[in-house]
Design brief:
mainly alpha; 2 helices; single chain
């Protein structure tokens, strides 16, 4: 070991290797979040652990993803409200239905 190379604790990786691993973990996480955002299917999300701070070169990508997620959440909220309005209208129509006697259709005509 040269005098310029700091000693590492047993089992630890050099700082640049740790940074590369953290960067790769963030890229993988952002890839998965972007895939989930663009998918029509509902996915179950589990918060990733041990990522640490977002690497500087991924901050822009993470910010754009966050903005897209907020837009999607707003769209979903709008759709949820619209669906509730439709359900309310259908319930109101159903409440006005009065039971009537039998109705026959003359199919011979």
């Amino acid at each position: 070991m040269s005098p310029e190379t700091p000693a590492l604790a047993p089992g630890s990786a050099p700082v640049h290797e740790q940074e590369a691993a953290a960067h790769d973990a963030w890229v993988t996480t952002l890839d998965a979040l972007e895939r989930d955002l663009s998918a029509d299917a509902t996915t179950t999300w589990t918060e990733p652990t041990g990522l640490g701070p977002v690497p500087r070169d991924l901050v822009g990508r993470a910010s754009r993803l966050l903005a897209a997620q907020r837009d999607r959440a707003a769209d979903l909220e709008t759709e949820r409200r619209r669906t509730l309005e439709h359900l309310g209208a259908l319930r109101r129509v159903a409440e006005t239905d009065e039971p009537r006697g039998s109705v026959y259709l003359d199919a011979s005509a």
